[in-house]
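can u do me a favor
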């Protein structure tokens, strides 16, 4: 409903004839050539009912549903509700439904799914138990996540560990299981091994301390393959006394040989 009775309108060449036909007097002046002119930016007060049908002049309106007072262009003054009340409901229940697409019942956003009631953002607000007015939070750790998700990447990965992961391979060979156990125990000795390291390659005594980290590796003096073939325990293979630090090149050349066999081989001297 329109509350304004009169509004101030700026005069332009498009509306001069309109308001003069309604009986309004527009102030004019004579220029240097004695011609009647209208000063640029001239404004007059007119009644709201005398405005042109497509006028963009703002008028005060009140919402018939919630009573909110808001400004609206005169050409849209046929609307009876504010923005929040205008988009309540979806589909045919929506007040602005004209056979088109429905709107979110909370924010009024246009929806692409005709059967949807809420947009993606508002849906996440209602479903997230730790919603705090900003972005949604992970339901496990409370970390900020993107809209439409319930868990962060870390918590999502924990849900898929072990046999819950679709890529979980239950058909591992005995050697693969043996190697996994060796690598697990080897990582526990990694910190102490690097603290006692003198910065040289174990096999050729060259200084490799300045090499990138990706080119420095931990090697087993008695190889994992040899230990598996000869039934050597996992603890003995992964013991810190069986570990050494070498360059990646030396490790690749050694392959599945033991340290003594590799040092005596001709591969090192080539």
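np, heres the sequence
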């Amino acid at each position: 409903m329109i509350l304004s009775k009169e509004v101030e309108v700026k005069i332009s060449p498009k509306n001069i004839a309109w308001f003069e036909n309604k009986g309004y007097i527009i102030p004019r002046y004579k220029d240097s050539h004695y011609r009647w002119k209208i000063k640029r930016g001239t404004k007059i007060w007119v009644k709201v009912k005398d405005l042109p049908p497509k006028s963009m002049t703002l008028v005060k309106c009140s919402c018939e549903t919630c009573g909110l007072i808001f400004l609206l262009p005169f050409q849209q003054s046929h609307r009876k509700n504010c923005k929040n009340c205008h988009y309540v409901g979806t589909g045919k229940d929506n007040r602005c439904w004209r056979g088109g697409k429905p709107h979110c019942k909370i924010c009024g956003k246009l929806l692409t799914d005709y059967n949807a009631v809420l947009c993606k953002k508002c849906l996440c607000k209602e479903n997230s138990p730790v919603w705090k007015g900003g972005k949604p939070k992970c339901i496990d750790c409370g970390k900020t996540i993107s809209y439409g998700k319930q868990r962060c990447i870390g918590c999502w990965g924990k849900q898929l560990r072990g046999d819950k992961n679709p890529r979980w391979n239950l058909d591992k060979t005995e050697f693969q299981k043996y190697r996994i156990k060796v690598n697990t125990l080897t990582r526990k000795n990694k910190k102490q091994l690097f603290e006692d390291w003198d910065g040289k390659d174990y096999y050729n005594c060259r200084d490799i301390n300045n090499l990138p980290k990706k080119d420095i590796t931990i090697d087993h003096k008695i190889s994992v393959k040899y230990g598996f073939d000869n039934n050597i325990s996992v603890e003995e293979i992964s013991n810190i006394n069986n570990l050494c630090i070498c360059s990646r090149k030396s490790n690749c050349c050694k392959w599945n040989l033991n340290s003594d066999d590799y040092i005596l081989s001709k591969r090192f001297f080539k």
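The first helix runs from residue 16 to 21. hope that helps!!
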